[in-house]
Amino acid sequence: MWNPIAVLGALQLLVGACAAATHELNWNVTWVMANPDGLKERKVVGINNQWPLPTLKVNKGDRVVVHMHNGLGDKSTSIHWHGMYQNTTNDMDGPSMITQCPVALGLATTYNFTVNQNGTYWYHCHTDYCYPDGYRAPFIVHDNSSYFYDDYDDEMTITMSDWYHKLAEDIKPTFMSLYNSTGAEPIPQSFLFNNSISQSYPVEPGKTYLIRLLNIAAFVAQYFWIEDHTMRIVEIDGVYVDEAEADKLYIAVAQRY
Ligand SMILES: [Cu+2]
Within 10 Å of residue 71's Cβ, how many Cβ atoms? Predict the structure, then answer.
């Protein structure tokens, strides 16, 4: 005799398996040249010889598999998936000397985890002082069951960050010095929006936009506002919140709204 409950269970498993996708990516991490503020060309960390880095876009429930090869040639590296809880996949978290060894020159590692969260996150290098050299980008998790899913016409992602003309390893000796007893932070040469100093975001009157804001800076918090508009806050750091009206946001390093 067949058991209808078992059959239903099997069907459900099948539907679940079909709905979730696996995003398998091969990332070769190497130095590339870039000049995001138009003032100085410098070395930045690229993926597959490109910078800015790709924004990771997945749906809630999807699996992420990233094969990362360290092609930098002069330093170790890693990826941390900022904001991901990594329940049961702790060793995929990324911080060097915490949950994994740094990935040494010429070696590779595979990150493999399922995303059971929603909202706006980012990924960045987590070995020594590496992410201010450009190794950071948004990680977006779409959730078609969010309470505001039908409330907007379009969405956009805006990253903000400080920008330095020196490599992080060249900033470190002054910042981490015994003689910097006040902890004075380095002064950035520029501030970037989406890795540029001249961005425009075309919008149409009467439409509602979901804006994903991320501060992916090394040190500097930012104020964000849109002239003559208020914003309705629906999510903070990947957590849905009761709607709140704001005319200005203060976004510290690593925060997302
Ligand atoms: Cu982080």
Answer: 18
Cα distances from 151 to residues 148, 220, 231, 251, in angstroms, run 5, 32, 13, 24
Q: Give 104 Cα–ligand 1 centroid separation in angstroms.
A: 20
- Assigned token pair, 216: 């992916």
Could you tell me the CATH number of the domain that includes residue 163? 2.60.40.420
Q: Write the pLDDT tens digit of every residue in 115-165.
A: 999 999 999 999 988 899 999 999 999 999 999 999 999 999 999 999 999
Q: How far is the CA of 79 from the centre of ligand 1 (A)?
A: 9
Distance 113 CA to ligand 1 centre (A): 17
Same domain? For 42 and 87 the reply is yes
In a shared domain, residues 215 and 191: yes
Cα–ligand 1 centroid distance for 82 (angstroms): 4
Residue 11 lies in a domain: no
